[in-house]
């Protein structure tokens, strides 16, 4: 999906929906629903199957489509098959998108797909590529609010570190509830480490098991939240999570990966790393495990990034 808009909000938008020949009918149905919803800022819905026309001059590209993992498929199969989609989309963005285009990758495995798209779009700034971990952040906020009996808007400073996978690290060490450390409001560290963190990290899979399909409504909300976080100035003292290039990060994470970290935005679509976070031994160990997983994923897809080597087949 590509969006053309200038900032700041409230800003009318035109949506270009990218599908395939096989999904054209379904895409027409989605376009009909969008039109019938009378969204106040939606001015145009266009559909197409050629990324070079759909992405033309777009300001935001939301890369949502990717194959879900089927029975018997290995992680490597998903990386290889979906990775190819992001080679093509990265190249198309490089050729026709606005040079300041922001790219938000949702299709899984989203961190590594982002790395692939980024490598294939050298004309776009690396900083403008994101993989969606806002859904995980929202899940973490919800669980902390439920446990402490507060409304979720009072839960702030929540970071998701790492991969959008079960190795992700929901950070309760730096989180705040009603402006107090979450670890003071919820003093049960055993619950935080062994129930809260795994619950958030496995929530996507748990939902698929119950519902038979991937999260949809909460993902859509989190995409809107992720965009809003970049186009509005971050509240003083707070931050948000997004998976971005690790180049120049202050946390000691290997460069050349796409890793979820705490960011602040000035509201112009750009962002900066948050410097003053505490990384205790628990966080350090978990962050390292997610980093190791992403290094392995990257090593599998080197060939899709235009480099020698790399295959998980
Ligand atoms: C989610 O977190 O809900 C999804 O990314 C899960 C999935 O694999 O579709």
From TrEMBL:
Q: Where in the cell is it found?
A: Plastid, Chloroplast
Per the UniProt entry, the Enzyme Commission number(s) are 1.1.1.37
List, alphabetically, the CDD domains matched: MDH_chloroplast-like
Q: What keywords is this UniProt entry annotated with?
A: Chloroplast, Disulfide bond, NAD, NADP, Oxidoreductase, Plastid, Transit peptide, Tricarboxylic acid cycle
Q: Which NCBIfam families match?
A: MalateDH-SF1 (TIGR01759), PRK05442.1 (NF003916)
Give the similarity note: Belongs to the LDH/MDH superfamily. MDH type 2 family.
Protein name per Swiss-Prot or TrEMBL: Malate dehydrogenase
Specify the species.
Pycnococcus provasolii
């Amino acid at each position: 999906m590509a969006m053309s808009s200038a900032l700041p909000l409230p800003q009318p938008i035109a949506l270009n929906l990218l599908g395939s020949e096989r999904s054209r009918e379904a895409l027409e149905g989605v376009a009909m629903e969008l039109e019938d919803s009378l969204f106040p800022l939606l001015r145009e819905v266009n559909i197409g199957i050629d990324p070079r026309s759909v992405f033309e001059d777009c300001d935001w590209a939301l890369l949502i489509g990717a194959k879900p993992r089927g029975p018997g498929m290995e992680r490597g199969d998903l990386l290889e098959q979906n990775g190819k989609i992001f080679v093509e989309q990265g190249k198309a963005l490089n050729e026709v998108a606005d040079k300041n285009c922001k790219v938000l990758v949702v299709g899984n495995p989203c961190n590594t797909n982002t790395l692939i798209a980024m490598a294939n779009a050298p004309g776009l700034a690396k900083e403008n590529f994101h993989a969606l971990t806002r859904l995980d952040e929202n899940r973490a906020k919800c669980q902390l609010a439920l446990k402490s009996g507060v409304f979720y808007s009072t839960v702030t400073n929540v970071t998701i570190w790492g991969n959008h996978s079960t190795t992700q690290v929901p950070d309760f060490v730096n989180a705040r509830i009603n402006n107090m450390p979450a670890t003071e409001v919820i003093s049960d560290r055993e619950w935080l480490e062994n129930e809260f963190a795994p619950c958030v990290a496995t929530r996507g899979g748990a939902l698929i098991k119950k519902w038979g399909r991937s999260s949809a409504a909460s993902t859509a909300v989190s995409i809107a939240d992720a965009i809003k976080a970049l186009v509005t100035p971050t509240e003083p003292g707070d931050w948000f999570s997004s998976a971005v290039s690790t180049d120049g990060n202050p946390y000691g994470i290997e460069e050349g990966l796409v890793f979820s970290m705490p960011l602040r935005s000035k509201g112009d679509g750009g962002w900066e790393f948050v410097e003053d976070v505490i990384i205790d031994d628990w966080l350090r160990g978990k962050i390292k495990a997610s980093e190791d997983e992403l290094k392995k994923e990257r090593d599998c897809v080197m060939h899709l990034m235009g480099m020698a080597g790399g295959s998980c087949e």
